[in-house]
Each structure stands twice: as structure tokens, then as C-alpha cells.
Amino acid sequence: MINPIKAAVGIVVGLATTLKYLFQKKSTIDYPREPYPHPERFRGVHELRKYDDGMERCIGCELCAVACPANAITVIGAENDPAKPVSPGERYGYRYEIDMLRCIFCGWCEEACPTDAIVLTPRFDIADFTRQRLVFGKDKLVVRDPYTQHLANTESAVETDPGVASGQ
Amino acid sequence: MATFEPVIMKGIGESDLADIDVYERGGGFSVLRKVMSDMTPDAVAAVVTESNLRGRGGAGFPTGRKWSFLPKDGRPRYLVCNCDEAEPGTFKDRMLLEKTPLQLIEGLVISAYAMGAKQAYIYIRGEFLEGSRIFRRALAAAQSRNYLGDRILGSDFSLDLVVHRGAGAYICGEETAQLESIEGRRGEPRLKPPFPAVAGLYGMPTVVNNVETLCYVKHIIERGAQWFAKIGPEKSPGPKIMSVSGHVRQPGNYEIPLGIPARELIDEYAGGLLPGRKLKAFQPGGASSAALFEEDLDVGIDFDSLAAKRTMLGSGGFVVMDDTACMVNCARTLTRFFEHESCGQCTPCREGGQWVARMVARLEAGEGSQEDLRVLNVINNTITGTNLCPLGDSIMPFLSSVLKRFPDEFAAHVAHGACPIKDVTAVVA
Amino acid sequence: MSETKMVKLLIDGQEVTVPDGTLVVEAAKQLGTQIPVYCYHPKMDPVGLCRICLVEIEKAPKLQIACSTRVTEGMVVRTMSPKVAEARRGVLEFLLLNHPLDCPICDKGGECDLQDFTMEYGPGASRLTEPKLHKPKRVDLGPTIVLDEERCILCRRCTRFDNEIAQERNLVVVERGHNSLIGTIDGGDYESYFSGNTTEICPVGALTSKAYRFRARPWDLSHADSVCTQCSVGCNYRVDARFGNIMRTFTRENSDVDGGWICDRGRYTFNYLYEPARLREPLVRRDGDLERASFAEAVALTAEKLGAAAAAGRAGVIGGGRLSDEEAFALQLFARKVLGTNNIDHRARLQRYASPARFGARLRDLDDADLILMFGAITPEQAPILDLRIRRAVARNAAHLVFVGPFKPDLAVPFHYVEYATGAIGDLMEALADALKRGAQPQGAFAIDLARNLNEASKIVAVHNGRNPVAASALEQLIETLLAVGKRGGILVVGSQGNARGAEAVGCVPNLGPGYAPLANAGMTTAEMLTAAANGKLDALFIAGANPALTFPDGALARKALESVPFLAVAEQVMTETAAYANVVFAAASQFEKRGHVTNLEGRRQAFAQAVEAPIYVATDAAIVSALASALNKPDVLDDDPDWLFSRLQAVEQAAKPAEPLARPKLDPSVTAHGDNLDAQRKTFTVVPVPKLYAGGGPSLHDPGLAPMRPQARASFHEDDALLLGIAQDRVVTLTGPNGSITVAANVGTSAAVGTVLVTADMPEAPVNRLLDASGRGRVTVTPAPLRKEALA
To answer: At residue C211, does pLDDT exceed 80?
Structure first.
């Protein structure tokens, strides 16, 4: 037999919990109108950084491509025109593509990069309608992302870039 | 003053021995006449072997044995006289070349006769411009009197001597580099074996002898092997010219009987140290040799006694440093020299030499660090003994020896940021 | 020869038995023990510079270098003792002191000995605390190479390669000590046919090839074991590709063929595939213009016209020397079984490549030959890697090199030059054979000289170009005579096209079937087909991988034939002079885009793998002819599968009974004339075409990698003739023959003989074949172009 009193108490307790949470801060957010708060070291979409003088950090060494466990990165290097260099040193990333559909956002590319060129930003919202548009080229990667403004860009090219110190 | 009667330095400074008439009047070329008329080549070689003459160029290899290595296969043989004297602290060959060129020619012809070489070369250091002029004049005079050339003194023996002048590379004093240079290539040591006695100049059997060695050959033939062998210690007999330089009253070349203590050379021959100074270190055998110190003053100056002290007689460049000398400064001078003169073939000598020179220069300038001292203390293992030729092995001995003896002086340079000794002398002055 | 003494030694406690005199480093290799080396290279003399190979040898007072120490009985070697490890660490620390460590952008990164050994034996970190020393980077060393002096570890492999192997003595070390740099002896460009090899033997990334610079990293590349088809030596190489595009080629040592080297023409000829000149789809002539068409349309049109001509017995097929063995076999099957004609020929002249077995020499025979006769063939230009063997034999084994020909070539090693007019070599050979057989004294000082050389030598190798049939058979006679008197030796015939020998072996000749089986009713040779076409006696021609408009000796005849033949189909990789005349052009696959076999000049059949996929509308020659066969209702005769073709070829070859001696090609009486008489009046000059490595009208014309090395078309005169004609160096002259003329700049010197003019061969801008007749000879008058005013001022 059901004890009506017990049942009533149960309902009251349950509704009390509901009532309590009704006035507490919501744990969901109104995405996308409201930005998702990222943990400090969240790994999202990549950015190919530049030096402060506008030179690209990427030297096209392909170490990120080799480190990538998902084979998502394609890099083709080329020789810098000494008169109009893209990056300090002799070589630059002529083509740089990341297949965001393949990427598992593990951050190994970041680890592998000898010039700190590729970094993972906390941005993650990259939904799109075609697969093609989710292969990010340099046009989408070489941007000054607001999320990476806190990364110091103070090191000079000469200090960090192999092959540069030779006074090219 | 020393009592030893000079042998090859006899008459130097008294008369112009480069003049053939003067030289002949003093008995010159009489030995060559005797050899040509009375002695077979083998007999000459036997006397030299018996005398136990050891090469005066630095390595101290027995001359008679060197000659005996020539294969008897009918190929042409060459004698090369090494007059590329470029060791800092050594200046004896230059004196012999300029003051007694005819004595050298006589010794050279006798030696060539003994080993059966019909073609000889003399490799004169590029900077010895005056010496080479004097030598050429002497050579022409000797040729005009048939001491050299076709059928010397009516015998069947002919010898042609080519004067080859270097272009100022220390490495060309190394025998195989010298051969390369004579052949017209970069002066760079060759891989041994084959040794020059088997495949030397132009691939033919070749003997390379020092100027001083060849000069002694003449006197050994003249006075006999026993005379020579009885001077000095049994294993390294004979007289030897020591070039004394540095902080002594009378720097210069002194011919000494091997085996006398270093103290005697400094005090008796070179007039002692400057007044009020104390001996700090000395190098018995030129820039390549490890330094010896006050407590070593009684060590005998000969090949074996010095080798026992982990240094060497070398070519006889006796450099004396008194207490005003900064060891770091001395080391900087020498390491800089070896860095500059490395031919660049072997990695340890080329790269290591350059690194050591930079570190020592930095230490001297007071910009060194403890890390530099740590590296300098261990780098000897990887530089010394890993090279093709002895140049690489010459970089470290002096530095290592003074670093071990005067660690405080080096440490003071680091701590002080400058040379403490220079400060002291500045105060004294 | 006595047997080599074997000695036993211990390396790291393991016993190994090797021949006396083996280097310790090689003995260790036999045990699988790696001793690191930089300066040591198995093909070159040890020099002992880098000191990385120091090992401990018992009884030796200090560490010894394994690269130059030879083994002795009972030697005890330790390659992993603490002392050795310390020395290695030291040497690596020194090497890395001022090394820029720009591995991420270095072309060698990933296959670099310095990286590898540092990982294995090196110190973890450098103790250098001051800035590194700097040297020039990006030094332009020549047309093919960029040098990075900072990365250089001065092992001198490159300079030694240039001195010892190429014998050119151009690369040297300049400066001294740690300032040493690699440079050229006169500060000029490093120009060599073998320059690419230095980038390969460089243990670090100091020497980088311009063609490959920064294009890929080693781990990106897919590898295909291929064989070079740029000349008839057949060097083995590896083709490295990325994303389906060829990035570079790399040696793949076959010591019997290439000795581990390849020449720059072979190494760098692949970028033409990505040039606009590359044919990517079939073309069909409509209203006078070649227009893009479908493969089916091209096949249908060709099948219709060829079929009709074949039915009337008026069809011909030219080509085979650029194809693989399988494809050449398919081509002759197509001619014989589908078109029903023996009119098939791969040659421009009457060359014959396969020497009867007892005359046939191997490339290896050059190594210990004591007399090398070069007849007509200019090996540095036509077979560079073969020339390396000659250079080594002459420089190292004191082999005697004799060049017989109409001009003095530029050879790297000393040689004896015997001047002999173009057509007269046959006479000389016959005279020499006579002299050897009967002891008769030949006439002329050089002939006497040569006869003496031949008598003194014990092993003689002749290198011939096979172009002059009279000379070829006279040479065979001479070698036969030499063999009869107990000497050893043979003949090597340098092919005009890469697979000429293979095309001959599979039957692309009018009088021989596959396997050299003689045929009862021989077809027409190339010359005959072109003559017939020019006279309107041929209705259709199919040309696969041949360019007679440029390479057939009588250019006027070739052009007339190609113009007047009613239907011409050409299969080519790039647009050529011949294809420009065609009604149908098939886009053919390159050697990199197919697999199969090729046969080199010594008769060695070598397999090559496919490196990349062909563009979609490009078909292999086998696919083209098998599509044609199907369209002609004979689909069973042919298949485009290389394996099917190869097994058929092998079956046919095994069944074939080659003639012994091989049937001589039919000789045209006009080409058997003995010798040329020079014009004593010097009104006319005899034309001597001179081959150049980078000349030619096909891939080499369009390859951007070869462009900097491409020669200029030149006419060289003897200085006496130049004086007579009033020609100075670089003066532009017009050479006029009976059928045409060309205008080129003049060279004045002594390499040309008096009365002759040397003209660069196979240059599309100035085709020498405008001046020649079908036998390859021609006379011209010379008119200097009027000097321009500015030239006078």
C-alpha cells in the first residue's frame, strides 16, 4: 500500500529542490548568443602566428605534419625571395592546410613546432556546410586571433628561428 | 760562462761563413771531399746510424734509421731539407741558413750521397727572404766549384738541389704537408701510412731532414760516430742548439751538449733571469711543448728526460717566463697561434682549436666563466691524440700544464674580471 | 693471380674473417657493426679527416681511425668502449659547435648523417656559451647547386668526388682552418655533368640541389626503383615523388652499371612533365590546326587511316628507342601482326647495337682495360656515366685512351687524339686489322702508332656510336683479329636513344624479329620509309617516341616526308618538331608513369617501377597501340599489360634463333663511300655534328631544371679557317648546304680540324640536319652575317 503522507512529503521535497534551483545560477548558457567560457588551455582551432614585424613564423618545416597523429596537416615549403621574404630565414610555408574534420585537437603540432608558429586557440565553433570549407588554408589560419593576444610576441625572430641568426 | 765548444755554431759571428772562400779556408768541404773519394754511401750511413743522431726538427727520430727505411727497389729517391722553421720560440735554422749555408749544403750533399738521392729539395720558410737569398748565393757558389751538380768532385754521384720557398704556413713544417706543398698543392698533412720513406714526394721514397740534423751529419762524418755518441746521454746524444728566449738576460741560440740541466742553460748560457725576477714557467721545446716550472729546473735537456716529464725537447725553442708573465696571456697567444695555423682538415684541431682559443681569449679579457674553466680542463681528452698530424696535439699541452699548475691565476681572471698580474705590475711600476 | 690472403680479427668480441688489407670500417660492416663516418666514402680514397670513426685497437697507443686502418691478423678492435664513445662525443661536439642547427628547414633534415650520429653518439647539449661563428649561406655554386657554408662540416667528399671520380678538379677548399670554405678553383661556377652527385654524398645539408631545394622533406617522399632512360647506360636510380609529382631522383647503386653515380641530365630531367609543353591529351588536326580530342576519337581516326594504308601495303612504323622493351615489342607486334608489314625501324640511321656475343663488352670491362678506343662516340656527352669509368681507368689504372674522330673532343683525362675524317674510320680499322693479322705496316703515322698501342695492350675496349655501318663492321673485324691473337676485349655501342639496344632486341628493325631472328622479307628502314613517303609511296606513318624531323640526318628529306605523307600519327610526351606535322598526336606516358624493362648498351635488361600516375588522358605507348589493334579488330594480338607483354616477349625470345653472326643491315650504296675528301680550296666545309649532353628537342628542351645548362648552338672553326673566312669568336655565320641553311654563332679554336666545321647537334633552333644527307655527311659554304653598326663601334 502506498502511504499517502510519505508520497506527499516526497512531492514536497522534490518540488522544493526544483524551487531551489529555480533561483540558483543556471549551469547552462545561452549559446551561441552567450560565449562559452573556456578553460585556459582549451585546444581548439589553430592559428599560424606572425612576428610583430609582420613576418610569418612558419618556416614550412613540416614537423607539425609529421607529428600529427591524424594526418590532418599538409605543408608545402618554398624558398623565400630574399627581396621580399615571407618569413625570416630561407624557407617559408608556401601552403599550409589543416583538415579540421580530421584534426583531433591533440596539440602535438604545437609541441613539434620549432618556431611556435602553430598554436591552438580556444575557438571551437567552426561548423560549416561543406567538407571543403573545413580544410583551413593559410587564409583562415594566419589571423590574429583575439584568443591568442595574451601570447607574448616579444621574442625576436632572430632568437627563435633557426637559420635566421645567420644574418640572411 | 759555459764551456762547451760549439760544433755547428763554430765561427758564427767571427767570420762570414756564407762566403765560400772563407768557408773553405776554415776546412769547409773537406769532409765532402773525403766522403766522395774514400767512402761508400753505406759506410756514411753506417757512421750516422752508429752515432745515434736523433732528428733535430722536433720528433727526435733516429736519422740513420729513417734513412734505412728507404726501400731498395730502384725507384728515384728524394731528400727534402726542412727549413720551414715556424715554431714560436725557435730560431736556430734561420741562423744556420743565414750564417753557415755552406755547412748545410755540405751536410746535405753527404746525406743525399748516403741515401742515394739524386734530387734534393730545400723548403725554406716564406718569411726567410734574406736567408733564401743568402742560401741561393751560397748554392750558386757551391755549384760553381762542383760541390753540387753533375759528377760531384769527379765522382759518379750527381745531385740537384731545388730551393722551394714556402708561403708562410706553419703546417708546412710537418713533413707530409711540406711534400704536398712542394708538389704544388695545399699544404695539408697526408694520411700515414704510407710514410714518406715509402711513398713521399711525387709518390717516391723520400726522407725529410731538418737543417740542424744535416749540419751535424757533416761533423759526425768528420769526427766519427763515437765522438758524437759520447756527448750527452747515451739514448739522446750529441750537441743541440737551443733557442733561448723570454725573460733572460741574454736570449739567443746556444749550442749545448744534450743532457745538461735546464738551470745550467738559463744561468750559465743565457745569463740568468732579469734581476729581481723569479722563474714562473719555461717551455723547453717551443710552443707545442708543455710548460715546466721552478721545481723542474734540474731536469736534463734531452729527448728522453723531457719526455719523462710529459713535455718534449722538440725543436729546441726554450721560452722562459718569469713572475711578471700572465699565464692566461701566454696561453692566449699560443692557442691563437694554433687556431690560426690549423690547416682545417681534422675536426678536433679545426673546431676545437678555435673554440679553445676563443675561450682563453675571453678569459684573458676577464669575460670568462667557471664553465669555460671546466671545459678547458676536460677538453684535452678530445683534442689531443685524435688528429691526423701533431699540430692538433700541440694546442693543449702548454695550456693544460699551466692550467693545472696555476688554477688560481685562471680563476682570478674569472673572479677579477681582468688580469690580476697586470694590476700588480702596474702598481709596482 | 694468387688468392687473397684472409685474416681473422675480433671486433667488439665478434670474430670476422676478411681479405687482408680490408679497412676496419668495412670489416665492421660485415658484422653489421656501424662505425660512424663522414669523410670516408667507399668509392673514394680514405683521407681520415673527420675523426668520427676513431676506434680502439689493442696495442695501438692511441685511438685509430677505422676508415684508413687496414686489418691485420689477430687485430682486436673495440668500437664501443668508453674511450671511443668519449672521442665520438668530442668530435660531434666540435662539428656542432658552429653548425647552424637549422635542421627544420634543411633539405637534409631527416636523412642527415650529422643528425643521426648526434642522436646516437653525440652529447646532449653543446657547451658553447658564446654566439656561433657565421659563414655565408645560400652560396650559388653553379647552375645546379646552392651551398650553405655554415652547414658544411668540411669532410671534403664533394671536392674529392670532383678530383678523384670526375677528374675535373674544379671544387676545392679555399681559406684555411676553421675559415675553410668550399669553392671553385677560379671562383667561377661549379659546372659539371656530375654535380648532382655531390649533393647526395654530402653528409649534411651543405650542398643542396636547386631542383629539390625546400620542396619536400625526406619523409614525405614515396620511392620507386627506376632506371634512367636519358642515355643508353641505364643507370639505376630511385624516383622520389610527393603528391604524385616527382621531387627528385636519387642514385641506387648498381656497381656493374653506374657505380653509384648518375649524371645531371638523368638526375634533373623530370620537371618537363609539369611544363605547358607536356602533352596531356590527344590532339587531332582539324582544318589545319591541332586541336584537343578524346582518346577514342584519336584512336578511331588513326585506326581507320593506318588500317587502310596497311591494307594497301603502304604503311610504316618508326620508333621504339624511347619505349620500354615491352612497348617496343608491342609496337613491332602492332606493325607485323596488325598492320602486316615489316616496315618498322627504331633508328635514324643504320646503327646496330647488339654486338655478336663474343665481341660484346660489359661496362665493367672498362675498369681493367689497358687500351680504350673511342670511335665516334663522345662519351661525356652521350654516355656520361660510362665516361666516369673511362676517367677512372685512365687516371687510376693508367689505361691508354685513344680517340679517333674528326675533331678533338674535350675530355677530362689525357688522351691520344687521332684525327680521322668522318667517313674514313672504316678504312683505318681495316688497315689496322690487316696490320695485326699479317704484320703489315699500316700507312700514316697515327695508324702506325695505333697499331703499336694495340699490339702492346692486353685488354682493349672500343666504344663506338654504331652510326657508320662500315666503321662498325671494320671495328668488329679489328676486335675479332685482336681476340684471335689472344687479347681480351670487346665493343660497347652507345645508343642514340635510351633503349635503342632494347628496341633492337625486341625486333624494332626491318630485318630482324624479336630475339634477333632473321626475317626472310625485310621491310623498309627509316631512310627508306621517309624516302617512300616523300615520293608519295607511303600512305600512313605511325611514329612512337622518335623525332626524325630533328634527328634524322637528312633533315630536308625527313621534313618533306612528314609533310607529304597523307596521314601521320605521332605518340609523344611533349610537342616536338615531328609532332607538329602530325594529323593525330597521342599524349604518351613518360617512363616515370609506367613500368617495364629497358635494355642498356651492354644488353642488360633492367626492370623499372612506376613512380607516379600519368595524367588522366595520357596513355602508355602500349595502351595506344593495343587500342589501335582493338580498333583494327585484332584485340588478341596485343595487350597493354606490361606483364603480359613481357611474358610473351620472353617466350618469343627463347624460341627465336638468332643469326650468328647477325645479319648486317642492308647498306645503302650512298652511305658506304670511304672517307671524305676535304675541299682543298676551302670553298666548302665538311659538317661534323657534335653531340651535347643537354641538347635535343624533347624533354631536355622543355625541362626548366636543364635550362641553365642548355648549350647554345655553335659552329666551331679551326683558327686557320676562321682567319681565311674572316670570322672572329662569337661572329654570327650562316652555313648553307644544298638543302638548307642555319645561322649560328661561331667558335674559333683548335678543336675542329682544318676544312671542317663542328656544329652542335640536335638543336631545334638550328638543326644541323638541314645541312646533312642521309649518310650524315654534308658540306656547307660559310657566310658571315654582316656586322651591325654597334658591333663595329
So the answer is: yes
Burial (CB < 10 A; 0-12, 13-18, 19+), residue B50, is middle
The nearest CA of chain C is from the CA of B369 a distance in Å of 9
* Strand ranges in A16-167 using DSSP code E only, listed in sequence order: 46-48, 73-79, 91-99, 118-120, 135-136
Contact call for A166 and C217, based on CB within 8 A: no
What's the CATH code of the domain at C40? 3.10.20.740
The answer to whether the CB of C614 falls within 8 A of the CB of C282 is no
Rounded distance, CA C527 to CA C513, Å?
19
β-pairing verdict for B239-246 and B252-257: antiparallel
User: Chain C partners of A89 at a C-beta cutoff of 8 Å?
Assistant: 102, 105
Q: Tell me how many domains chain C contains.
A: 5
Summarize pLDDT for A37-52 with one digit per residue, the tens. Answer: 788 788 999 999 888 8
Domains in chain B, ordered, with CATH? 20-230 (3.40.50.11540), 239-322 (3.10.20.600), 327-428 (1.20.1440.230)
Instruction: Check residue C672 and give its pLDDT.
Output: 42
pLDDT digits (tens, 9 = 90+) for B65-87: 999 999 988 899 999 999 999 99
pTM confidence score: 0.91
C290 is in which domain, residue-wise? Answer: 283-351+499-655
On chain C, the residues whose CB falls within 8 A of the CB of B347 are 49-52, 91, 94-95, 153-154
DSSP C732-752: EEEEE-SS-EEEEEEEEESSB
C-beta atoms of C105 and A82 within 8 A: no
Contact B66, B55 (CB under 8 A): yes
Residue whose C-alpha is closest to residue B202's, from B211, B213, B194? B194
Q: What are the sequence ranges of the domains in chain A? A: 46-160
If you measure CA to CA, which chain C residue comes closest to B362? C130
Do C551 and C640 fall within a single domain? yes
pLDDT score at B3: 74
Q: Extract the C-alpha cell encoding B3.
A: 764551456
The domain that contains C416 carries what CATH number? 3.40.228.10
Percent of chain B at pLDDT exceeding 70: 98
Dig out the grid coordinates for A132 from the structure. 571543403
| ipTM surpasses cut 0.85 | yes
Residues of C in contact with A168 (CB under 8 A): 137-138
Looking at the fold, whether C504 and C646 belong to one and the same domain comes out as yes
Residue C627 C-alpha from the chain's centroid: 32
Residues C648 and C579 both lie in one domain: yes
- Shared-domain flag, residues C520 and C467: no
> Under DSSP, is residue C781 helix (H, G, I), strand (E, B) or coil?
strand
Q: What is the DSSP secondary-structure string of B82-112? A: EE----TT--HHHHHHHH-HHHHHHHHHHHH
Structure-block grid coordinates of residue B10: 763554430
Spell out the alpha helix ranges (H) of chain A.
4-22, 63-67, 108-112, 138-141, 157-160
**C399, C332: one domain:** no
Q: Are residues C306 and C429 located together in one domain of the fold?
A: no
Distance separating alpha carbons of residues A142 and B284, to the nearest angstrom: 67
**Is C267 found in the same domain as C133?**
yes
Residue pLDDT, tens place only, C90-130: 999 999 999 999 999 999 999 999 999 999 999 988 898 88
Nearest CA in chain C to A165: C100
> Nearest to residue B173, comparing CAs of B239, B90, B96, B241?
B90
CA-to-CA distance for C197 and B167, rounded, in angstroms? Answer: 34
Q: Which single residue is written with the C-alpha cell 769547409?
A: B28
Cross-chain Cβ contact B375/C177 below 8 Å: no
* Residue pLDDT, tens place only, B119-134: 999 999 999 999 999 9
CATH class of A46-160: alpha beta
Tell me how far apart the terminal alpha carbons of chain B are, to the nearest angstrom: 32
